[in-house]
Design brief:
With 64 residues, the protein is an alpha+beta fold. The chain contains 2 helices and 3 strands. It has a 3-stranded antiparallel beta sheet with strand order 1-3-2, with helices on one face. Strand 2 and strand 3 form a beta hairpin. Helix 1 (13-26) packs across helix 2 (49-58).
Length: 64
């Protein structure tokens, strides 16, 4: 499944790396693409949206 989430606090490549690591900690095969200008994160994963949102929020980047 592909998720597209808006992450307002994402501002730089370090933020992107933190978010990617958070997602991959619960789904190692997940593909994470992020655009710091639009604040959009596109995630291809087998995990539920709620699990992905929780992992990103736990890393300090709650999705809108």
């Amino acid at each position: 499944m592909t998720l597209q989430l808006k992450v307002p606090k994402m501002a730089c490549s370090a933020c992107v790396n933190t978010i990617a690591k958070a997602v991959q900690s619960i789904d190692p095969a997940a593909n994470v693409e992020a655009d710091t200008k639009t604040k959009l994160v596109k995630i291809q994963t087998v995990k539920s949206e709620s699990a992905i949102r929780e992992a990103i929020a736990d890393a300090g980047y709650p999705a809108a």
